[in-house]
Amino acid sequence: MNTLGKKIRLLRHQNGWSQEDVAKRLDISIPAFSKIETGITDINLSRLEQIAKLFNLSIIQLLTYNDTEEQEKYISDLETSNKKLRERESEIIALQKKIIDLFDELRQSKVLS
């Protein structure tokens, strides 16, 4: 399924419409609408305007509409990266502590000798 098709599907679900509902509103067959959602059929400008109007959006808003799946993936990737960063920061702090301890040992051995 292409990105635009996913956006259209998401908008349809958000409005509580079936594929049949939208197909009737667009005056096309259900299989034709299904092909739009799945990306099998490319959408011409006229159809794009019709779909945008159906959802009370401009064409730009429709094309740039952020779907939840993309946002969730981005958030998930960001959380994973932050977790790894925190783990690396902890490792660095532990290594810094070891360096300080070794320096102190070295300094103590020089004082005693």
Q: Could you walk me through the main structural features you see in this protein, from its secondary elements to its overall organization?
A:
It holds the Pfam family HTH_3. InterPro entries: Cro/C1-type_HTH, Lambda_DNA-bd_dom_sf. Residues 8-62 form the HTH cro/C1-type domain. Keywords: Coiled coil, DNA-binding. This is HTH cro/C1-type domain-containing protein. By secondary structure, the chain is mainly α. The longest helix is centred in the C-terminal third of the chain and has 45 residues, at 68-112. The chain has helices at 3-14, 19-26, 30-38, 45-54, 59-64, 68-112. It has 2 domains: 3-64, lambda repressor-like DNA-binding domains (434 Repressor (Amino-terminal Domain), Orthogonal Bundle); 67-113. Helices cover 80% and strands 0% of the residues.
SSE-based structural type = mainly alpha
Q: Strand content of the residues, in percent?
A: under 5%
Task: Give the CATH H-level superfamily of the largest domain.
Answer: lambda repressor-like DNA-binding domains
Under the CATH scheme, the architecture of the largest domain is Orthogonal Bundle
